[in-house]
Amino acid sequence: MFDTEVQRILDYVGHGIGVRVVGAPGSGKTTVASNAVFNLEKTGFTIHSVTGLRTHRNIPYAAVKGLGMEMRPGRSGVLDLADVMASQLAKTGKHLILVDDLHLVDNESLAVLEAVRQQSAAPMIATAPETHTLSRGQLAVVNQGREAVIQLDPLHYEQVHALLARVLGGPADADTTARILTKSAGNPRLVVKIAETGSLGNLLIRREGVWRMSSGTLWSDHLSGAVEALLAELSEEEVTALHSMAILGTARVDVLEKIVSPETLDSLERHGFLSVMDDHHNGTIAAISPPVVVDYFRGKRTLRDRHILRSKIAGILESTPQSPGNDLTTADCLSRVLSALRLERGNDDAVTARHFHEHSASRERARFERWEANKSAANAAALLRVYWGAPVDVLRAKRVVKESSTLGADPTDLLFLAITRALLAIYDGGGLTAAVEVLREFAEGNPEQKADIEAAILFLTASHGRVPGPGIGRTGEKARTFEVLTQGLLELYRGQPNGALRIIEGADDDELFPHLRPFIHGFALFAAGRVDESLVFALEWRAEARKNMDQFGVVTSSYVAVHGLLYSGHFDEAEYLMSSVFAMGRPGFVVDTLYDAMLRLAGLRHATTTLTPKLSIATQARTEVPDVGPLPGVGKGAYVLIADAELLPAAFDRQAGRLIKRQLRSGYVLEAMLTALLCTCLLPGRQVLDLLQKILRESGITVHEHFVAIATAVVETDHQLLGLLLKHYEPDVDVYEIGMLLRSALKRHVLEGDTTAAEAIAKASSSFAARFPTANEQLAFNTFEASSLTEREVEVASLAGYLSNVEIGERLRISARTVENHISNALRKTGATSRTSLFILVGNTFPPK
Q: Which end of the chain is more exposed for a tag (fewer CB within 10 A), N or C?
């Protein structure tokens, strides 16, 4: 869970730099520090541990006396204790001071630590809450010497998924993971507590190996202690303020300030209990974080009957009007949107998801009440549009389409109801046949809308079955917007992105599918090789959708952006983007296929870096879908191929070839092209490469010419040509993919035991990496069990690519002969053919020590 943070601490301490670990209560500060100390002890460090305790912070010397230092009678002052501790730190060997919960250490102990740090150069690891303002005494302790700060941010969706699997002994489904993430706001301690109490109280049950919610709540009184621990440092006024906010719910800040003083709100935000964000509909709004605190106040019987508080809030709300709140280069724009995305990663996507939930639930409730009062087609369409992007109440949706009146209805509303009924048929398991039947029946009774219905049938058929041949449908002057956009989408499916862009040029957004035009535009840019333009477009579109609380727009724009990020090797940004979507829970029936597709895309990294990807979040995607689909990830075939790969190159090439041919037979040329690109990068083979060349040639896409030429030289083991191509290569859209290709080719030759080819590719890969360095991880298959190497073998192997045996021995404090033995064992276990090959193999699996 915290491997990256622990490794950073080890690197800093190894260079004599102290570390301050900061985070919210329950964020894992103590766990991270303890794991780092455990690793340091194994390398010979002596740890001098000081722990701050809430009950002891007013007891003089309580913290340092826990060290068990032997003192002479009458010599127990600050300097006396400091001299004894400093003498211990001066003994032969490596020493480290650990101060856990610095903010709870008594003042006298702080004085001792300050004096000790002035006398000793031993590094220190300290933990403290990010929301706590350190006193002068605390700052005097941590500000001695060089210090790095490691911030522990809230967990994201995939981390919560992994943590739940560890705590519960098996994976949780997507809705359960999203609900726990939302309730806990990504706080690790709360994630664990909610999972444990949920399983003990049967709020979580295990069916078919997957944990699911048995009811609509995860709150139980067993969680009270965990929440009370979070609230322990708050004043009585601040606790009362939180109770008021729990009663009020998410509200505008100006409304909150009528109930809670601005100073108290500032204090709560400083302590991390208040989340503030901009909402285009309501201005600046705020809510309690983590949301489980709301459940605590609403569930406490002793607090539930505070009538005076409730009356005060009700009176203020009645008197408060509830009106809603009122050119660069592509490279520059890309840098800007990526910076904004990375900045957003520090925010709380769980609380953002909660805002979306509340906004959607409020709209759904209001529109349903309006429909119940007047069951017109217009009111029905307004309600059902919520379900196109937000979570679906299937029973309510079926009732609305069945009971709504069609007399005198607007034709647009009737068309919307018909298409929604067709989508419901697919969502409910009826399949494409049932959906087409619904639309045919509607067309018979409404011949004036036959063109739109035919376009809808074409849209559903192509998206859920197979793409018809070109020439079907209208794109001329008489064609309506939806017809034009449908033709543009079909061109995209057929692997003709430039044709899709031409068709939709000048087209307006469609009322039925408001995000169809930007979706086609953004994905066509990506498919045409204009990846940076696609990323800028999609991330700006997503930012606008987030501000408008538009879940439909967030899911569709995120799907487009994720492809650009993955293609460029920005895995951390892509995983955050998908995590923020998953945190909102499963969306409406129009975009649920894209949600499942992103689950599979998120699982690709895990599938290539472990030989048993059973806990990947990709397992949360629906399995009752075809192997092929119109867009990457919609069909499950590519993910299953990669996750189940036996890593036998010839077999993988055959299986990938069969899958790509099935995609082509279904008319999904774009999916076939991207599958062939990915498979060539992961494990290059002749059959897949031939298919990729054929697809690119027939689609008229030329942006991948250099990649194909280099891949051909790799597959044909023409090392002389490969060297020339790489020597004259200039960075283009495929620079990251070429790096992947070279790594994967090395691994293929290692698997096949071709020593000569492996050495040549290793040299080419190292040279390419030196010319085009990247901080992004290179995705590639692992070829051996990670557990087969010892920890020391991993340390040695990760240095073997650029240090001699003597240099490695000096760094690790072992002999050169021992280094040689470790390298020999690692070569034998991994099948690598040289030190360089070993370094590349292991370096892709393990972080450098």
A: N
